[in-house]
């Protein structure tokens, strides 16, 4: 997925979720900035994530992020790579050790614009996170990266109890459940 493909997908992207719909134009506008894929763009930049589910759509793989101290989907910075699908897959493999990851479809699964708190040498900034649904097998061995405190599969029913309220995770869970109904 190159910059033009991303922009075209964003222009066609529709969501019934008000919060998500509210920042689609911000994502489209960001595609015009040549620094959009680099973390050096201090106001905010693209990141890519994988919403990893098992083929039966009963579990999702989440990481307890070391810097943020929250359970999140796997993903990271584009670091200059405009192919956000490749970034999402690379980050998922690096953060989970899974090598048998399968992209469910090449279209955007979810978007989230969120603030990253200030840290030493890094000001507060936005992540414009483009997310893709990825499948993996529950039985495959996980290898936790140094970016995580923990890495675990959660049943869809247990996610809220385990991670608390996170609107973007809840939205992806709901989207996954709705996509199952359509299959």
TrEMBL record:
Domain called Nudix hydrolase: residue spans: 43-176
InterPro entries tied to this protein: NUDIX_hydrolase-like_dom_sf, NUDIX_hydrolase_dom
SUPFAM superfamilies for the chain: Nudix
Xref: Pfam families: NUDIX (PF00293)
Protein's recorded name: ADP-ribose pyrophosphatase YjhB, NUDIX family
UniProt source species: Algoriphagus zhangzhouensis
């Amino acid at each position: 997925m190159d910059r033009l493909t991303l922009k075209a997908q964003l222009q066609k992207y529709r969501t019934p979720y008000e919060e998500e719909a509210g920042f689609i134009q911000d994502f489209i506008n960001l595609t015009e900035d040549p620094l959009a894929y680099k973390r050096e763009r201090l106001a905010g930049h693209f990141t890519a994530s994988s919403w990893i589910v098992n083929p039966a759509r009963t579990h999702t793989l989440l990481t307890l992020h070391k810097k943020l101290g929250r359970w999140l989907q796997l993903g990271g910075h584009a670091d200059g790579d405009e192919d956000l699908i490749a970034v999402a897959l690379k980050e998922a493999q690096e953060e989970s050790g899974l090598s048998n990851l399968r992209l469910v479809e090449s279209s955007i699964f979810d978007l989230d614009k969120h603030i990253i708190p200030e840290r030493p040498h890094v000001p507060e900034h936005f992540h414009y996170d483009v997310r893709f649904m990825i499948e993996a097998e529950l039985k495959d061995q996980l290898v936790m990266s140094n970016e995580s405190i923990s890495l675990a599969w959660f049943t869809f029913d247990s996610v809220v109890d385990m991670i608390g309220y996170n609107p973007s995770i809840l939205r992806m869970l709901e989207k996954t459940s709705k996509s199952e109904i359509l299959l």
